[in-house]
Amino acid sequence: MAHIVFEQVTKQYENGFVAVKDLNLAIEADEFLVLVGPSGCGKTTCLRMLAGLETISQGSIYIDGQRINQRSPRERDIAMVFQSYALYPHMSVFDNMAFSLQLQGTPKADIQQRVQAAATQLGIEGLLDRKPKQLSGGQRQRVAVGRAIVRNPAAFLMDEPLSNLDAKLRVQARAELSKLHKKLGTTFVYVTHDQVEAMTMGSRIAVMNQGILQQVDTPQNLYKRPNNMFVAGFMGSPAMNFFQASLQPAGDQLWIEAGTLRLPVPASVKASLQPYLGQPLVFGIRPENIYDPQFAPPGINPVELKATVSVVEMMGHEVIVYLALVDGHEFLARIDPRSRFQPGQTVQVSFDMNRFHLFDRASEQALV
Amino acid sequence: MQDTANLMRLLSAIAAIVLGSGGIIALFYGANWLVNYLPYGLRSRVLPWVYMTPALAVLAAFLILPTIRTLIISFMDRRSEAFVGLDNYIFAFTNSAMLIAFRNNLLWLVLVTGISVSLGLVIAVLVDRVPYEPLAKALIFLPMAISFVGASVIWRFVYAYQPPGFEQIGLLNAIVVALGFEPVGWLVNRTVNNFALIAIMIWLQTGFAMVLLSSAVKGIPQDVIEAARIDGANEFQIFWRITIPMINSTIVVVSTTIIVLVLKVFDIVFVMTGGNLDTDVIASRMIKEMFNFRNFGRGSAIAVILLLAVIPVMVANIRRFQQQEANR
Ligand SMILES: Nc1ncnc2c1ncn2[C@@H]1O[C@H](COP(=O)(O)OP(=O)(O)OP(=O)(O)O)[C@@H](O)[C@H]1O
Ligand SMILES: [Mg+2]
Questions:
Q1: CB-CB: which of B230, B233, B241 is closest to A51?
Q2: Residue B326, class by beta-carbon neighbours within 10 Å (0-12 exposed, 13-18 middle, 19+ buried)?
Q3: Chain A, nearest residue to B247 by Cα
Q4: Nearest CA to A293 among A283, A314, A307?
């Protein structure tokens, strides 16, 4: 178990490119922290700095209060699972898993027992004599995890360990890793660009974009209260719909006006939005908060409006509908599968005005 | 006049190339055309042989037949007139000069192979981390481009010896004398002359080993090295437990290539010492028996022995290659 702190960490590569900028992040011992973000945002760079594979240009990283910038990887007591698994091709599965213990000079019997235990836990005890080349992708992934857990390290770092698996295996491996984390109770730092993985596995999620940390929070909070438009758009699938909008008063009501859209602001948040009257804003609503009025559940605050259906994607348990407003602005809705929307139809849809988001258009930050 | 002669020569060279390669193409094309008239099942079995036959014919004419002839001559007397049984072989394994040659060759094998491969490996790994890698590699590889005879001429100057009191023009002796020692007759002193010759071969072969091993070292995925680092391996452990096992097959190939080369070595010995003063190796003995003493029987016997010594190495090499292919 390790308490990991990034303090104003910046990484500038030799070619001058700044991959990570001013990162401040505290990871609790026993936490499953997921680092998520689009490709090239600096996730791997963060992990490699923590592992000691990459120098830290500025700032400090602490493990359990000790500054570790100058420590070599072997002095950090950290295990890492690589995206490519990076198994030693010339060693058997057993030796792959035993390597770190052998280097530490652990007694043979001890190694045997620990590797065996880890292998049993991962269901690979039958593969110990094989070479990595003779394993399937899923088996290799388990060996890579096994190699990490036999060491009993202070923290596990994982860089997209599931991205080479097929969809079904990935779901299974996801659950297994979560279980493993509960069982070991050790710090996990897990990198992915898959937001479903992030939402399902993380006790907390750190969202990065272009080398800058955007928000760190629990999956629920991240989903409910994204700090800015990037996080709002990145977390959730399909992504949140955005409309250029502004707040206009009319009578004693406050209205969100977005092109031909005119949506009443619920009384509960009216006061807090008063300062933003007339400013350029962005209105956001998730596809799952748009309903076919026929199947709208109770307890929402529906505002009906007219839209034209362009595409209907039947997913089985839900339907994704591509819609366009009268002014041509397109958006997506995720609606009840019983809905009868057909392409070409003009239909009524309900926006749940208890679940909308407003952002400042210039700074893209969420309004409180 | 001279110009037209040159032009003619150029034209005939071009004609030879065109006719030669054109002939080969026509041959293959024609054979292929003929084979296409065979029934399908037979065709796929015949076709490889059709393509291989010309090569096999050339191989037979220039390699296999002479080998067989050498084998036969090795059982005959010096003029290849009478059958003498194993006499020539008995000579080869009992004659004192031959025994010295065997001993020397063994020395060459162990030292040249061992030192150039390990030195090449160490340099390959180290050079991987220096910023001016291409320059460093070029310098070490440079001797490879020099012929054995050329290298020998260079090293004659390095080893040159003048009696004490005279100015030393040899690099090595100049250093030795400057340090206050007596000059050494590197090539005449029986305790050092073999090593002096072996050093030349090492100088020539280290670059070769380094270049091949270096590309193998570069072929090791970076993340495997990083995984080892995270697993707690220091650089030394990574070298022994990751790098060497992973480039094992290249090490074997490089070693066997050098072994074969060393078994055949004779030019260096021939130019530097002429094989005198106990510096003979098997190949230089063979040349002597064959052309100096005109004893074709003995010369051929030694040639056959050399051939037999090379075969296991070649077989090992081919095996290794096949294994590697199978593992792909
Ligand atoms: N050695 C390097 N030198 C220069 N730039 C680099 C180097 N390594 C990575 N980068 C750049 O740094 C940025 C972050 O890279 P990083 O590998 O951390 O991305 P990532 O978030 O892991 O992306 P992915 O999801 O595709 O793996 C990228 O824009 C990349 O091009
Ligand atoms: Mg990455």
A1: B230
A2: exposed
A3: A90
A4: A307
The 8 Å CB, 24+ separation contacts for B105-108 are B105/B262, B105/B263, B105/B281, B105/B282, B107/B194, B107/B198, B108/B194, B108/B197, B108/B198, B108/B201, B108/B262, B108/B265, B108/B281
Contact B231 A78 (CB under 8 A): no
Which whole number is the average pLDDT over A29-53? Answer: 93
Count of positions (residues) in chain B: 328
Among the partner residues A53, A90, A103, nearest to B245 by beta-carbon distance = A90
pLDDT band with cut points at 50, 70 and 90 for residue B326: low
Q: Which of the four CATH numbers 1.10.3720.10, 3.90.1310.10, 1.10.10.10, 3.40.50.300 does domain B95-327 have? A: 1.10.3720.10
Task: Locate B66 and state its tokens.
Answer: 């002479």
- Half-sphere exposure at residue B216, Cβ-oriented, CA atoms within 13 angstroms: 24
Peptide bond into A337 cis (omega under 30): no
CB contact under 8 A, A74 and B227: no
Ligand 2 centroid to A134 CA: how many Å?
A: 26
Residue pointed to by tokens 């019983």? A338
Block residue for tokens 């409180």: A368
Tell me the ipTM for this assembly. 0.84
Question: Is the per-residue pLDDT at B208 higher than 70?
Answer: yes
Interface of B with A in 166-225 (CB under 8 A): 221, 223-224
Q: Which of A6, A10, A11, A13 to mutate to test the pocket of ligand 1 (most atoms within 8 A of CB)?
A: A13
Compare all CA atoms of chain B with the CA of A87 and give the residue at the minimum distance.
Answer: B224
Q: How far is A76 from chain B (nearest CA, A)?
A: 9
Tell me if A86 and B227 make a contact (CB, 8 A cut-off). Answer: yes
Q: What is the pLDDT of residues A171-224, one digit of tens each?
A: 888 998 999 899 988 999 999 988 888 999 999 999 999 999 999 999 999 999
Domains (range + CATH), chain A: 4-234 (3.40.50.300), 241-360 (2.40.50.140)
Closest residue to atom 17 of ligand 1, CA basis: A44
